[in-house]
Design goal:
The protein is mostly beta strands. The protein contains 1 helix and 11 strands.
Length: about 160
């Protein structure tokens, strides 16, 4: 089979970046004698991903307009979270449920609201847990449930 050698650069929570290795031409035959760091991947199977950083500006939509805030991208968190007072200011007062959240402080039951927002130009409607984030650097945390279609670049 004649294909180019594709090398693995870096794996993130929702995909991987690949590049054509410069030492191989498009016509070189790839066989099992190559090292384990060789990854073969058909270009047509690579879904299009948007690269984002660990901190991104998001636009939160509400009935009263919209607000742009900095959000922490956290692949260690399953669900997204928003500061209670920010959610209240934006008019997100109607709870759609409650969930148990496991954190470093133990298990807590938190109310959940549905929020519409934009991340890197993509419109997302998702559920957010309400938390007191007033002592944290970012009033919004974006978790894994909202990161389909994105690659996270951890460099600053």
């Amino acid at each position: 089979m004649k294909i180019s050698k594709i090398s693995f650069i870096s794996m993130f929570a929702f995909g991987a970046l690949f590049f054509v290795h410069p030492d191989y031409s498009e016509s070189e035959e790839i066989n099992s004698s190559h090292s384990f760091n060789t990854v073969l991947f058909a270009n047509s199977l690579v879904p299009e991903k948007t690269i984002i950083r660990a901190v991104e500006s998001i636009v939160i939509h509400s009935n009263s307009g919209y607000r742009t805030v900095k959000a922490r991208i956290d692949t260690g968190a399953t669900q997204s979270s928003i500061d209670m007072s920010l959610a209240r200011q934006l008019g997100y007062n109607k709870y759609v449920g409650r969930v148990n959240v496991v954190s470093a402080n133990g298990i807590k039951t938190r109310p959940v609201v549905e929020i519409s927002y934009e991340l890197s130009g993509k419109r997302i409607i998702s559920t957010f847990t309400l938390a007191d984030r007033s002592n944290l650097n970012y009033s919004v945390l974006i978790g894994r449930n909202d990161l389909n279609g994105f690659l996270i670049d951890p460099t600053d």
